[in-house]
Amino acid sequence: MAMLGKRRPRRERSGVSGLQRRQAAPTGGAPVPPAGDGLVTIERLAHDGRGLAHGADGKALFVEGGLPGERLEVAIHRHRKRFDEGHVRAIVEAAPERVVPPCEHFGRCGGCDLQHLSVAAQRRHKAEVLVDLLARQGVEAPGEPQRLAGAGEGYRRRARLGVKVDAEGRVHLGFRARHTHRLVDITDCTILVPELDALLAPLHQQLAALEAPRRVGHLELLASDQGRVLVVRQLKEHESDRRRWQAFAARHDLHLARWLGRESPSLTWLTPAPSLTCRVPGAAGELTLGFAPGDFLQANAEVNRMMIATALSWLDGLAGSPLLDLFAGVGNFSLPLASAGAAVTAVEGSPAMVERLAANARANSPAHALQVDARQADLGQPRAVASLLAETSPATVVLDPPREGAEAACRALVASPVSRVLYVSCDPATLARDAAHLVHGGYRLARIAVADMFVHTSHLESMLLFVHPRAGQPTQGASPDG
């Protein structure tokens, strides 16, 4: 108890370079000192964006920061049974695609792991990853993927920033370091839209001025048609800090809301509650989507618009045709496809989002005559999807699932084929798994696109269009339960 109330002494760092600290090793595996370092040549990029090399014994080595063709001096920081993991100590021969990262936080912040690779090369890599993962599941891509890409910087319209108070009482605001829970202070972010990036420095000052910063869990930033939104996740009420947040919102012209509580937080507005909206393209003009903090909203508005336009282009002839949109959210695809004349049954698991989806359909219907039936269902259950297919008899099904994918829905679609399935995915591994179900169940992959939703990261968004030559005829031996 002798140290109670005293500052903890700083621990000395010995024998570890700044580069090694910034590229911290992931948890798990046995840490080793940088003994046995050596020169390697990077053969290609792995799916997660790390460079892949092989040692003299043939064992794979994944190198954070390595690019194809580079000759590198590497430090191994993890030995595993089937492969090792390392990071770059020195670049002996650089790849022509290597660039200077645009963000000063690169190498420490875990948000953007590919900033050292040119944007054009990033996009080629993502297309190759998708084609490769499909091929591993026995699904052949119908040619080079179409690429949907927008701005390389200033594109992200929402962000969640962690808040932490350290042992010495200093307040930190930022994103997590890669593979760790350690918070990296962020004072500016090249991928945030400028109006949100401009808030980072003032937020640092605001947090330092609070009486109880430890009661703040994280901050959420949103850019909407109505302006900037700040959502404070607060673990416990603090009256004077609440007034400080309201004064901050007034100074910076913000809409301010708060999630309050630990187990089941409730959302309240600390400024007049706005009706938040964003715009998306329709078949005959712009549509407006209402949303609330906590609803799913694509982070990159420009690329999202490209994806919707691609869906409208691929799914022609929708007038009067029944369409089932599963994992519909607040109507991101449902409303644009309904504006092209489809009779849409839009299904979502979240009751709150179903309500907003229905409200969005009503709000846009006077101008666009939309046919949208919003419903709630557990889409992880094959029988629930089978029931929807039997009831609605759709010619087209749209899937836009979370990272877990839509395996239950794909099994049901094999048992009860439809003419077309448009699958929008944020995880290429689960997409490849589900694509295999569809293709081996009689569908043909007809169109493929890669959407660069998160530039400078290895995150991959994609769109696949499947067609079935015998739609309406149950597949022999198939059942929705697989």
What can you tell me about this protein's structure?
- This protein is an alpha/beta fold.
- The chain has 3 domains: 15-98, Beta Barrel (OB fold (Dihydrolipoamide Acetyltransferase, E2P)), CATH 2.40.50; 134-149 and 276-467, Rossmann fold, CATH 3.40.50; 158-224 and 227-269, OB fold (Dihydrolipoamide Acetyltransferase, E2P) (Beta Barrel).
- The chain is built from 11 helices and 24 strands.
- It has an 8-stranded mixed beta sheet, sandwiched between helices. Strands 1, 2, 3, 4, 5, 6 and 7 form a 7-stranded mixed beta sheet that branches. The chain has a 7-stranded mixed beta sheet with strand order 11-10-9-12-13-14-15.
- The longest helix is centred in the first third of the chain and has 18 residues, at 119-136.
- The protein is globular.
- The protein starts with 17 loop residues before the first helix and ends in a 15-residue tail after the last strand.
- Mean pLDDT is 89; it is low at 1-36 and 474-478.
- It comes from Halomonas campaniensis.
- Residues 31-90 form the TRAM domain.
- Keywords: 4Fe-4S, Iron, Iron-sulfur, Metal-binding, Methyltransferase, rRNA processing, S-adenosyl-L-methionine, Transferase.
- GO terms for molecular function: 4 iron, 4 sulfur cluster binding; iron ion binding; RNA binding; rRNA (uridine-C5-)-methyltransferase activity.
- This is 23S rRNA (uracil(1939)-C(5))-methyltransferase RlmD.
